[in-house]
Amino acid sequence: MSWMRQQREQRLGRAAPMAGDNILQSASPAESVSRRRKLMVVDDNALHQQLFRAALGASFALSEAHNSDLAHQRIRLDPPDGVLLDVILPGRRNGYELCQLIKEDSQFQQVHVVIVTARTQLQDREKAFSSGADAYFPKPFGPGALLAYLSEKIPV
Q1: Exposed site from 43, 115, 130, 147, fewest CB < 10 Å?
Q2: Whole-angstrom distance, CA of residue 52 vs CA of residue 62
Q3: Which domain holds residue 59?
Q4: Is the pLDDT of residue 137 over 80?
Q5: Overall domain count for the chain
Q6: Measured on CA atoms in the order 1, 99, 132, 86, is the torsion positive or negative?
Q7: pLDDT tens across 95-107, in order?
Q8: What distance in Å separates the CA atoms of residue 22 and residue 4, rounded to the nearest whole number?
């Protein structure tokens, strides 16, 4: 659900999804003919989750998790095509550790993992790639660049 639609739903008194809810976007009729790409956003900041929904919700079926434990559980139950991971997360694992866990499991090696973080030092970028990340985007990120990257790397 887009941020604007969410606001409209709140004004109309309908229940709006909360951060951490598993939100799956409904596919348009044209997209229902082909498989919709699934993307999980793992970030504990509700504002960041709203930004991801606004930037990517029209192109991907999004689900969200606000901590690493919930993310790992949901990935195991319904593997997405891609995962956007913050580094600093509540739960037993940080984003690097969750990325490594995903990539070490042969069942999920095809899942495209993108680290999206405010940590921008060279060693943070190196740690992202050494943990198995396919890409690294520093926050604040350019929504167009992230969408273009994901659209290219996660085919329909």
Answers
A1: 130
A2: 9
A3: 18-153
A4: yes
A5: 1
A6: positive
A7: 999 999 999 999 9
A8: 19
